[in-house]
Write a structure and sequence with these properties.
Beta Polymerase, domain 2; two-stranded parallel ribbon; elongated; alpha/beta; 7 strands; 7 helices
Amino acid sequence: MRKYVPKDSVQAKSYYTDRFWVAPRVPRLTVEDEHFLSVLDALGDDSKESYIEVGQLVIHIEATDNLRIIKKLKEECGYTQCSEQSAVDYLAQDGEFELFYQLLNINEAKRIRVVCRIKDGQAIESIHPLYKSANFAEREMFDMFGIKVNNHPFLKRILMPDDWEGNPLLKTYPLEGDEFASWYEVDKIFGKEYRDIIGPEIRDPAHIDREDSKRFSRVGYEVPFGSEVAEAKSEQEIEYSKTLLVNYNSKKSKILDERR
């Protein structure tokens, strides 16, 4: 018989006891690979923390030394390709951004993840002089997180319009956009004087309004465009085109009749 567990106040208890849910961490292993050990020897005291995670070496460094350390990894350790660069928003939890650089050594088929942290409003040095691929990655980081990059050749938004307000990948940014986002296209195309006529943009992809005869097709309950839905409450027969569409609900089929 199973042990009895009292269930008196299950609903009164919170499922998570902490404010931020922490996912199970990927196992961190000690560095034993000869190549990775040689990389750590080359870096010396520049590596604050190092471990193996998912088969790659992770190195934590000071953000102010990112250009110098990454240059050493490229010229002395053979990491000639920067395949990815971005950031993670930990402002609410730690008050910092976590920046990472994903480097690849093609000859050794090894990967290194260089990680550093900066405060909100702090800038980072550009690695564009070392990797040309960092150009767009740093612009995307500036666009999505608002992180400024010093000595970047052309630091401007890359995904959002130049006059956009806010940074969409911040955790404080609403999932479906803020008030500025809901009025952006209306103001841009028609002008603010048309706000009362058109209304805000519907940014919820799952939104369905059965009373809206402008944005939704009402199969079987069609009404003229822009008219009141109350005019057609009863179901109407669907009209199929005899030349373009086929009525698959029809009981008769010439092909089946011939085969019989």
